[in-house]
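Page header: ASSEMBLY MODEL / two components / 743 residues total.
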Amino acid sequence: MNHVIVVDLGYGDAGKGTVVDWLCSPLGSSFGGEPVRTVVRFNGGGQAGHNVLTADGRHHTFAQFGSGTFWPGVRTFLSRFMLVDPLALAAEAAHLAAVGVPGALGRLAVDADAPLTTPYHRAANRARELARGRDRHGSCGMGIGETASYALGFPADAPRAGDCAAPRVLARKLRLLRDRLGDELGPLDAPPVADLCEAYRAFATAVAVVDSGYLAGVLRRGRVVFEGAQGVLLDEWRGFHPYTTWSTTTFANAETLLAEAGFSGMRLGVVRSYLTRHGPGPFVTEDPTLELPEPHNRRGDWQGAFRVGHFDAVALRYAVSVAGGVDALAVTHLDTVARRPVRVCDRYLVDGRRVERLDPGPERDLDYQSRLTGMLLRARPSYSDLGGDWPGVIEAALGAPVALLSRGPTAAGKRAALLSRRAA
Amino acid sequence: MGSGLWSTDVYDAAARFRDATGASAFGYSDGGASSVHPSLDPHGVTVRESRDCAEHPQSLAIAVLFDVTGSMRHVPRELQAKLPQLLGLLLRKGYVAHPQIMFGAIGDATCDRAPLQVGQFESDNRMDDDLGHILLEGGGGGQKTESYELALYFMARHTAIDCYQKRGRRGYLFIIGDEMAYPRVKAGEVRAVIGDGPQADLPLAAVVAETTRCWDTYYVLPSAAYHAGDSEVLGQWRGLLGQNVIELADTNAVCEIIALTIGLGEGVIGLAEGLEDLADVGSTAGPAVSAALAAIGGTRLELAAAPGDLDGTSGNIRL
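Prediction written out in full:
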């Protein structure tokens, strides 16, 4: 079975949604031989924003549903590595219904062990970000970090999807959560426990909450795409600390899930043909004069500005390296760079030295990651003209074959590079 | 990074989830499918297993098979929407600690494309997938008979359940329908539908006897079906299953009927307590359940017959 893991090598927004949508389309089966049955989320939570545009002009920003949901029969599984926000799922399903995809909740299964993001986490997140003032970390304000840290700190008390059908257990956990966060941050602006319990119980009735054996069956029955959230350069351990996310954004979680069921998957790294970043943090090749069109990524109230810059081969080589290598690359937004003065940064100048590679540090060494951040903030880009076509440039820069080219926002704008080259 | 685009209003969410409930149950048939979903195809199945595991150490097998032929009219669709609540009902009141539920469907082997559909024993919401995949064929012949005997044969010879094999406790089998079984299990039909099979046809009574050895078997006849109250139909099933024939006035009460029958059978509740439990969880099915179960009343004894101990005539083993 050709299961595929899709991971963004940059700071997010590379176009994972549109790549997953293509893989799930009839065209995408040319890539793996058979239709995709299920999309699995394996990191992050409801803060993901994966935009998909259909050929007939419908648009949806996928936050928790898999980005293959526009295709009939493609299901979503939220694994235990995903932080599930049931309330946002309801609104997302309602929008999907409005764009012609009714019954999305009926195609959703959630691991009973997945931690829940609740309004209490969200209120705590916002209280903390406001207190940080100008030193904000670029959090989405959705409570993802609070959810992850609470689940780490109090694993037995963290509300989980499986608790939703057990109102007493859930109410106890929610009260404990509200009181602990409230003791630390003051009264939280969030609805009462009883009202949350009622909504969560309705969630457990509308959605399949499954135990640990579910995914193995899914992997046996059909082809699966693992859809990553955010990007490797934001990884909690390998990103540029402290401008990171509370999530493992590499292939690791997906490979854990696959290995538990005795499977493996193809590692597909997604890059734009230029680079973008939401909010603060290092961005060596940033160039505000580029003026690239960005219809679906706006300034988030809690994340700060959407930034654009040139293709950064140094940072992306680092991403490939800390992700443990990629089997192939998907390159998106080729239509955009075709008409713009986008360049390739192949080395940095840092304190008068030339830097072509960022060395991955020891595992889980945030001091090292902080020093890396300091170095990147002092680095200046050095651009070189590598020549050749963009896919070729990117293959050479990152040392992996380009398997998918995207020249437009819909599935029709994409094709499998290896196949098309063979045909040509 | 993301957007936090979708509203997290708790009251909107609750309302939307309530609206969505049950929507998943119709997927397969409404998608235009015209053959048995692969996950429910009995062909080539050696056994459907209900096994103990770390998460569910004292499993109890429960199977619910319903007639999906035309005479049942809208009943199968109602069952498909209603049955996802069964697991919650059993767990909420503690009737069963570790139920493993299998759903399936019965058609007519002489003329249907889907004479038998059988899911897996599941202990979580995955059973709803099976339910959603059941093809509601609406076919069947006009002779007041459907292939119930084929379903009984499958349950007798193609299931393996730990509650019986390890603990001598029979599972629960509910057949919801409105017609009679054919008088013989035909060897040719077994070969065509299930794949292996007996050399010769088997008499219905023998197959029922074999089934009831490890399955406490109930026949439920909903009054909304075409043959409701038909004395010939009721007569055949009472002859086969004795008092385990339930006439149900309200199709909406099917989960409650099954849950209370199991609660009674497990000796966890009496009928009065069970009806209180229903009121307690906000069910309005009390009167229908009360009327239907009055005939059953008592409780089932703890131990089923040991394998091999067989009462041939009624097929209804009670120690």
